[in-house]
């Protein structure tokens, strides 16, 4: 008969197992975790060439710890990362891809290298195609920064992320929850919703998260509900209904005559283009003639002499003596 497991066997087995490490290390000598070579490349603008050339040794040193090789091509203006035989972590190449993407978007190298840490992700939000007008786009992009960068700093503190507004994109680094909030704020700002409303909402959520009693409850009653004060309503024309009693007829009303029907009744439809032009010119001349006569009468009215004769004499009443 098989032996029944004793109560302390499970605890002893758990104690004997070594602790699981969260990160891959090169000194573990696990061998290469990749079979084929994977590589990613991205282009960078001309003005980043000098800075990248100076900061490239720092980038190379950081990627070597993860077993990733990198190349900077100043002639083509591109950065390339690829796996090597020393690559132990299969996800390292994806972090390296995000690293060169952030460097191309003008993120400083010391900050961009933090993408290689555990639990740090990035999101590059394209905002140019969200607004059609260039002037309106510049104004709304400035709202993300705020006066002296105060709005951007508040967003970074509330979401625990790093945000860089540059050109037609917004680059963000941090935890996944914070990146989701940053994308929502940026896209709503481009849709003409001011970031201050989201900042107030995030501040309230931060305070509510400290209360353990509200962990399993809905926070909708605590969050502010902002609505537009001026609603753009379409003007509805005033309908004047004829309330007078009409005799009932079972037949529907006759359809209104179209322009072609009216022309066919008058015979104008069958006239040629020259005949129509002559008729229109004749009608125009008649109207001009009538207008001319009216103006002549108005001018002659000033020269009509007044009626002759003085004022009628008033009759005096006779008074009896």
From TrEMBL:
K Homology domain mapped to chain residues: 119-191
Any one GO molecular-function label of the UniProt entry: RNA binding
Subunit-structure text: Component of the ribosomal small subunit (SSU) processome composed of at least 40 protein subunits and snoRNA U3. Interacts with snoRNA U3. Interacts with MPP10, KRI1 and with ribosomal proteins RPS1A, RPS4A, RPS4B, RPS8A, RPS8B, RPS11A, RPS11B, RPS13, RPS24, RPS25, RPL4A, RPL7B, RPL8, RPL23, RPL25 and RPL28.
Protein name in UniProt: KRR1 small subunit processome component
Comp. bias intervals (Basic residues): 312-321
Pfam families given in the database record: KH_KRR1_1st (PF17903), KH_KRR1_2nd (PF21800)
GO CC annotation: small-subunit processome
Compartments reported by the entry: Nucleus, Nucleolus
InterPro entries per UniProt: KH_dom, KH_dom_type_1_sf, KRR1-like_KH1, KRR1-like_KH1_euk, KRR1-like_KH2, KRR1-like_KH2_euk, rRNA_assembly_KRR1
Extent of the signal sequence: none
First-listed, main subcellular location of the protein, grouped into a coarse class: nucleus
GO biological process, one term: rRNA processing
Record region (Disordered): 1-23, 243-321
Record keywords, A-Z: Nucleus, Ribonucleoprotein, Ribosome biogenesis, RNA-binding, rRNA processing
Function according to Swiss-Prot or TrEMBL: Required for 40S ribosome biogenesis. Involved in nucleolar processing of pre-18S ribosomal RNA and ribosome assembly. Essential for vegetative growth.
UniProt keyword Nucleotide-binding present: no
Family stated for the protein in its record: Belongs to the KRR1 family.
Biased composition (Basic and acidic residues): 256-302
Organism this protein belongs to: Ophiocordyceps camponoti-rufipedis
């Amino acid at each position: 008969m098989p032996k029944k497991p004793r109560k302390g066997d499970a605890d002893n087995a758990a104690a004997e197992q070594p602790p699981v490490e969260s990160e891959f290390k090169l000194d573990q000598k696990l061998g290469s975790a990749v079979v084929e070579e994977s590589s990613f490349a991205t282009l960078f603008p001309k003005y980043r060439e000098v800075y990248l050339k100076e900061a490239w040794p720092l980038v190379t040193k950081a990627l070597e710890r993860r077993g990733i090789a990198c190349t900077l091509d100043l002639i083509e203006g591109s950065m390339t990362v690829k796996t090597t035989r020393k690559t132990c972590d299969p996800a390292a190449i994806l972090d390296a891809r995000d690293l060169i993407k952030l460097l191309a978007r003008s993120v400083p190298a010391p900050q961009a290298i933090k993408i290689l840490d555990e639990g740090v992700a990035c999101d590059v939000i394209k905002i140019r195609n969200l607004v059609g007008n260039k002037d309106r786009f510049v104004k709304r992009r400035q709202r993300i920064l705020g006066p002296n960068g105060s709005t951007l700093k508040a967003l970074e503190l509330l979401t625990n992320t790093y945000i860089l507004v540059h050109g037609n994109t917004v680059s963000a680094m941090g935890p996944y929850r914070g990146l989701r909030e940053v994308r929502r704020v940026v896209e709503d700002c481009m849709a003409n919703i001011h970031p201050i409303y989201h900042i107030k909402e995030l501040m309230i959520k931060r305070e509510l998260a400290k209360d353990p009693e509200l962990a399993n409850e809905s926070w909708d009653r605590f969050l502010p509900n902002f609505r537009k004060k001026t609603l753009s309503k379409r003007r509805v024309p005033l309908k004047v209904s004829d309330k007078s009693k009409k005799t009932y007829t079972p037949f529907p009303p006759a359809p209104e005559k179209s322009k072609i029907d009216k022309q066919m009744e008058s015979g104008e439809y069958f006239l040629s283009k020259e005949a129509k032009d002559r008729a229109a010119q004749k009608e125009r001349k008649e109207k001009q003639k009538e207008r001319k006569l009216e103006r002549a009468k108005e001018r002659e009215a000033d020269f009509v002499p007044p009626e002759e004769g003085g004022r009628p004499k008033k009759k005096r009443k006779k008074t009896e003596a």
